[in-house]
Amino acid sequence: MNSSRFNRRDFLRASAVAAFGFRILPASARGANDRIQVGCIGVAGKGLVDTNAVAAAGGVIVGLCDVANPRNPELGRKKKAKDGETILDKFKDAKYYTDYREMLNAMPGIDAVTVSTPDHHHFHASMTAMRKGKHVYCQKPISHSIWEARRMAETATQFKVQTQMGNQAHAGEPIRRGVELLRAGVIGKVTEVHAWTNRPIWPQGMSAWPEPTKVPKGLNWDLWIGPAPFHDYSPKIAPFNWRGYWDFGAGALGDMGCHIMDMPYWALGLTAPDWVETKQEGGTAIAAPLWSTVTYHFPTSYFGSPVKFAWYDGVSPKEGVYQHTPPEDLWKADFPTADHVFRRFDMLLVGEKGRMFFNRSRQDWLYKPETLTNGFTEPARSIPRVAGGEITGKGEDTGGPYVEWLTAIKTGKPALSNFASSGPFSETVLLGNLALRVGKRIQWDSKNLKATNAPEAASIVRRQYRKGWEMA
Q: How far apart are alpha carbons 242 and 275 in whole angstroms?
């Protein structure tokens, strides 16, 4: 490797050859006699993507569940399946439910479920399914609270079900190759990681709940609220802006952290930080901040040394300019403007030898200094590759995580973003939100799930549920 830039075409060709023998085939390539029956919980928005992708990967969609009827135009669900069909029209043989508890009770033949609901339902939907022996693909973060993530990982092990978190790029070539390169020492011992996003792209910083409006026909608002504290319906909450409210979502960090922070967390063998501190503007008791910087300190890593991991979110409302960026001495001399680096990459890793600018959806990463990789011997590919895990020219996932999950169900060999690994990772991501909400540095006791210096954090670590939705 004698260039600071990877050639994507050559890289993909080499990856395909080197990965021979590790490659996982789509379920559809093995015939229809062993297809997996899937019930999909949440089938609009990302749920529409997950439902279609699982079907394309070989799953048989037998159940569809959504609190909002996909055929009702009042609900603003304009995105439809091919040829103008709704998801109900596309999967005509699937039974439709509004309550996932009812679906799981009425359809014991379901093998697996996808969970693509707002965050506050992830735990209840996944736990209900796992306790019935169903395999689970759950969107990120896998839970709304830290305690829930711990329980979900324990339950998956207890019931021996195959699980996968929906941080799709985990199954892709860029992240898996990035892990191999970092562990091979391409930039030496890693001491700092800086990751950023342009989110939120929804309102945050609200200090009051919106005025209630009439619930649209075809929407079961009580079921939408589910285990969360009750609030009246408003289009300023659903179907999309719930992400900014702490009762339902996890803000910009919860939305994007499990994607962007994934590669170094995996590569560096990180577990739980011992402390987390934050800076923010506009955060309130009910809503996530307008912007934040979250700094995690990990006491050890793959290299046996501590790591500082900083997260930055929020952009200026004017022209989308990035406001909160890593220290300029780490990037400014190498790029004309902040826009050139922060729109192209989503991460900067600092090692004892140099720096790496990385993006989970690209393979033309940059190393600084440019001579850094001269003489570096690329490591062999040691992580299994997944058919469909390549990245298209648009940076989109092409089916890899769904193939990997269905293959895990068939073979019993866990997918690599299963709850045993994505559970602790979700805990770490959500710990940043804990620090944001408490408003001070958190000294963290991971074993006991306690902020040792902030007893007031206990009700956030483990939230209470609305009457009728109690679950332990």
A: 28
Count the alpha carbons within 13 Å of 255 in the hemisphere toward its beta carbon: 25
Q: Which amino acid is at 101?
A: R
The DSSP letter of residue 348 is E
The alpha carbons of the chain give a radius of gyration, in whole angstroms, of 22
Residues 305 and 329: their CA atoms lie apart, in Å, by 23
Which helix (H) or strand (E) segment is 355 a member of?
Answer: strand 355-358
Q: Which residue has the tokens 């306790």?
A: 131
Paired residues of 296 in beta bridges: 276, 309
DSSP state of 354: -
Who's near 64: CB < 8 A, 6+ residues apart? 39, 40, 43, 51, 87, 88, 91, 94, 95, 96, 97
Q: Where are the domains of the chain?
A: 20-167, 170-391+416-461
What are 307-335's pLDDT values in tens digits?
999 999 987 655 556 667 899 999 999 99
Q: Into which CATH architecture does domain 20-167 fall?
A: 3-Layer(aba) Sandwich (3.40)
Give the type of residue at 437. Answer: R
> In Å, what is the CA distance from 254 to each residue of 142, 143, 436?
10, 10, 12
Q: Cα-flanking dihedrals φ and ψ of residue 128, to 5°? A: -60, -45
Which contiguous run of DSSP H or E holds residue 297? strand 291-298
Contact partners, residue 161, CB within 8 Å, separation at least 6: 130, 133, 134, 135, 136
pTM: 0.90
Q: Model confidence over 30-49: pLDDT tens digits?
A: 344 478 999 999 999 999 99
Q: Which residues pair with 115 in a beta bridge?
A: 41, 138
CATH match of 170-391+416-461 with 3.30.360.10: yes
DSSP assignment of 366-380, as one string?
A: EEESTTTTTTPPPPP
The 10 Å CB-count burial string (b at 16+, else e) for 57-93 is bbbbbbbbbbbbbbeeeebebeeebeeeebbbebbee
- In angstroms, the CA 330 to CA 350 distance is 8
> Three-state SS for 269?
coil
